[in-house]
Amino acid sequence: MSRLHACFEALKAANKTALVPFVTAGDPHPSITVNLMHDMVKAGASVLELGVPFSDPMAEGPVIQLACERALKHNVSLTDVLDMVKAFRTQDAQTPIVLMGYTNPVEVMGYKKFASAAADAGVDGLILVDLPPEEGAELISQLKANEIDMIYLLAPTSTDERIAFICEQASGFVYYVSLKGVTGSANLDVGSVIEKVNQIRTHTAIPVGVGFGIRDAQSAAQVAAVADAVVVGSAIVNRIAENVGDPEKISQQVCELLVSMRKAMDK
Amino acid sequence: MSEDICKDYYSMPDERGHFGIYGGKFVAETLMGPIEELREAYEKVKKDKAFQAAFDKDLADYVGRPSPLYHAERWSRELGGAQIYLKREDLNHTGAHKINNTIGQGLLAKYMGKTRIIAETGAGQHGVASATVAARFGMECIVYMGEEDVKRQAPNVYRMKLLGAKVVPVTSGSRTLKDALNEAMRDWVTNIDNTFYIIGTVAGPHPYPAMVRDFQTVIGREAKRQILEQAGRLPDALVACVGGGSNAIGLFHPFLADEDVKIYGVEGGGDGIDTEKHAAPLCAGTPGVLHGNRTYLMEDKNGQIIETHCISAGLDYPGVGPEHAWLKDCGRANYVAITDKEALAAFHEVTLTEGIIPALESSHALAYGAKLAKTMDKDKIIIINLSGRGDKDINTIAEIEGIEL
C-alpha cells in the first residue's frame, strides 16, 4: 500500500481530516528545510507538501513568489529538493511527501530520470501546476512505473465533464483549488467549496483535498468538515517570511499554527 | 523531427494546439476552462463573415492598412548588394504591427461579452495598442509592465495613461516582459469572468499562438501582393526580428510554402550569443515549458528561466513562439542573432540614409538584412519587416550615447 493511501485510510478510520502544510524547499535557507519538515510532522501534519522553487511561478501570489526567490538565491534545484526528501526519509519512513511545482524543472531533468530519482528519494506524489492531463501522458506513465501518484488540481472553473475526465486518471488524492485566483488570496467562500467538493465526490471515491485561501484554525476547521485533506500554504510561508533570520522562531510559529489548526479540525 | 510533420506548413497547430513537440496548453486547471472557451469563440469568428469584415474594415480605416512596401533604393545602393524593400508596419496607427493583433483580439473580447482587458508589455507597443482598442471599445484596461521597462519606455507609459489604461509596474523576478506575463496570468486567473487577456505575441497556451498569427498574417499577405506588383516576382529572402515572434510569423507565414524564399528570424544578441548576456533562445537556448507552451527557452541546467539582456525591451524575452521553434527544427526558417551594437549602427544608418527612424526591435532585422544584402547580387530582393517606429527609443539611444535631451 502506498504511503498516501495508508495515511488516508488511517485518518479515515480515526474520523480525521489530513492536515497538509506546504513549504518551499530551501526557504529561506536549504539547511532548515529537513528539520522544519520533522517539526511539522510533530505538530500534526499528516502529509507534507514540498514546493520545488521555480523562477516563474505563475499560479502563486506574492507570498510564495518571494519564497521561491529566497530559495533560488541559494540555487536550490530539483536535485537538491530530492536530496532533502532523502535526508528526511532517514528518520521518517511514514509521512507521505508530495512535491509541488512547475513543469520545466522536471522536463529539463527528464521525465524518466525524475520519476526514478523521486521514487528512490521517497517521494509519494507530484503536483505540477501547469501540467494538465492533456499534456502529461508521458510523465504519467513514468510516474506510474515508479508508483508515484500524479495529483491533479480541480478548480471552480472545472466543468462537470472535466471533473469526470480528471477523476478518471487521478490517483493519491485530487486537489480542489478553492478559489479563482493565485495562492494566498483572501476570498475563500466556504459555501461554494462545500458544493464543489460534493460535486467532485459524485465522480470519485479517492480523497479530496482543498487548498488556496486557508489561513487560520477557523477556515481550516470549516474546510475540514467537508474535505479529506486541508492544504495550508501561504499562511505558513508568511510565518517563514516574517522570521527569515531565525530558524527556531520559524519552526515555533509554523508549529503553533499547525497545532491550532489540528485542534480546531479535530473538534 | 520527421519530415512528414514538416511537409505541410499550414497543418499546424494540430487540434491539441501542438506544433510538432512545441506549443500546447501548459496552464493551471483554473485556466483550462477559459482557454477552451476562447478557442471555441475564436473558431467561430474565424468562419464568421461579419466578424472578418469588421476586422478588415478596422485594419483599413482605423489602422491605415495596407501598410506600404517601400523600396529603400538609397540604402540598397550604399550597401551594394540585394534590393531591400521595407514593409512599413511603423506607419500603422500607434506605430507598430502590434495593433493588427489587438484589433482582432479586441473585437473577439467584445464578441465574447468581456468588459475588461488585460495585457502584458515589454517595449510598451503592445500595451499602447491594447489601451488604444480598450479606449475605442469603452473597456477597462490594465497593462502589466516590468518595472525596468517602465523606466526604459517612459513615453509609452504616458501614452497608455493618456488612453485611460492603468499601468501596473511588476516588481517580481527580473522585472521585465516575462514577469509582466506572469503577473497578467495571475490577474486573468483571478478575474476570468469578465476579463479578456490580450497576449501580444505568438506565445502562450493554445489558441494564442495560432490566433495571434492569424491576426498578423495580413503583413505577409500584403507584402506578397505588393512585391508581385512592384517587382513582378517573389522575394529571395524575408527578414524580421523575433522576440516572441509575432511580426515575424505575420510576414513569414504566407510565404512558408514558397520554398525558394529564404526566411531569417533575427533574435536579440545583446552582448553576443557567446556571452551570457543576450535574448536569443532559438540561437542558443534549449526546449522547455514556460508561459503555457513548450518552446525554446533561455534556461539554466536546472530548468530555471534566466534573465535576458537586450537593448530593445521588445526582444528582451526568454522564450519564443512555438511555431518558430517548430520552423527552426524543420529547417524552413533560419534564426540568427544581432548584437546591441550592430542594431544601433543599423538604427543610425537607416535613419540617415532613408529618413526613417526605426524601432530598436526592427533595427535588429535591418542590421541582419544589411549583412545579408551585401552577400547577394543586385538583382536579388530582400523584404525586411520594419515592425515599428523608433520614436519610443530616442531616450534610450540618447542615454547610451551620453546625450542629454
In short:
The complex is a heterodimer of chains A (267) and B (405). Chain A has 267 residues and is an alpha/beta fold.
What would you say this structure looks like, in words?
The complex is a heterodimer of chains A (267) and B (405). Chain A has 267 residues and is of the alpha/beta class. Chain A has 12 helices and 9 strands. Chain A has helices at residues 3-13, 33-42, 62-73, 78-89, 103-109, 111-121, 137-145, 160-169, 190-201, 217-224, 234-241, 247-266, and strands at residues 18-24, 48-51, 97-101, 125-128, 149-150, 153-154, 174-177, 208-211, 229-232. Chain B has 405 residues and is α/β, with parallel strands linked by helices. Chain B has 17 helices and 14 strands. In chain B, the strands form 3 sheets. A 6-stranded mixed β-sheet of chain B has the order 3-4-14-9-10-13, with helices on both faces. Chain B has a 4-stranded antiparallel β-sheet with strand order 1-2-12-11. In chain B, a hairpin with a 1-residue loop joins β11 (286-290) and β12. Chain B starts with a helix and ends in a 5-residue tail after the last helix. Classes of the chains: A alpha/beta (267), B alpha/beta (405). The A-B interface holds A 53-62, 65, 69, 72, 75, 77-79, 102-109, 129-132, 134-135, 152-159, 162, 166, 177, 180-182, 185 and B 16, 24-34, 172-173, 178-179, 182, 185-186, 189-193, 286, 288-292, 294, 297, 299, 301-306.
